[in-house]
Automatic annotation (TrEMBL):
Keyword NADP: no
Catalytic activity from the UniProt record: a 2'-deoxyribonucleoside 5'-diphosphate + ATP = a 2'-deoxyribonucleoside 5'-triphosphate + ADP; a ribonucleoside 5'-diphosphate + ATP = a ribonucleoside 5'-triphosphate + ADP
Positions annotated as active site in the UniProt record: 117
Known role: Major role in the synthesis of nucleoside triphosphates other than ATP. The ATP gamma phosphate is transferred to the NDP beta phosphate via a ping-pong mechanism, using a phosphorylated active-site intermediate.
UniProt cofactor(s): Mg(2+)
Record-linked InterPro entries: NDK-like_dom (IPR034907), NDK-like_dom_sf (IPR036850), Nucleoside_diP_kinase (IPR001564)
Oligomer status and interactors: Homotetramer.
Record's protein name: Nucleoside diphosphate kinase
Family recorded in the similarity comment: Belongs to the NDK family.
Length: 140
């Protein structure tokens, strides 16, 4: 397996409950290394731009509002097959369907407030990383 990178967001529901460290610990225990991280408050423009693929979906405005509702932690993660590894440790989008021991099963509040976002492909990871980070901010 090749060492690759993926993108992660610790969402407002998790930062509000002071779970940044707990989420990061679960990511690291899954074999991922944080090579860039920053706590930000998403602007409307950032939230709309980042989630633009969902613009026509009925939940888009609620998603944008939620992502602006508090601080988030954006991260670049590195590890063997990082996208898959991250998605495995995140668990299913709906926490009710997530496997025990996953971030969403253990920490999420609901399908909407599910604590984390992770890239779904290497291509999207590259795009999402570039959306929030300059190359010199990634110090792997």
């Amino acid at each position: 397996m090749a060492v690759t990178r993926t993108f992660s967001i610790i969402k407002p529901d998790a930062t509000r409950r002071n779970l940044t460290g707990a989420v990061t610990k679960m990511l690291e225990e899954a074999g991922l290394r944080v090579v860039a991280s920053k706590r930000i408050r998403m602007t409307k423009e950032q939230a709309e731009g980042f989630y633009g693929v969902h613009r026509e979906r009925p939940f888009f405005n609620d998603l944008v509002t939620f992502m602006m509702s508090g601080p988030v932690v954006v991260q670049v993660l590195e590890g063997e097959d990082a996208v898959k590894r991250n998605r495995d440790v995140m668990g299913a989008t709906n926490p009710a369907n997530a496997e025990p021991g996953t971030i969403r099963k253990e920490l999420a509040e609901s399908i909407e407030a599910n604590s984390v976002h992770g890239s779904d492909s290497d291509e999207n990871a590259a795009t999402e990383i570039a959306f929030f980070f300059k190359p010199e901010e990634i110090v792997g």
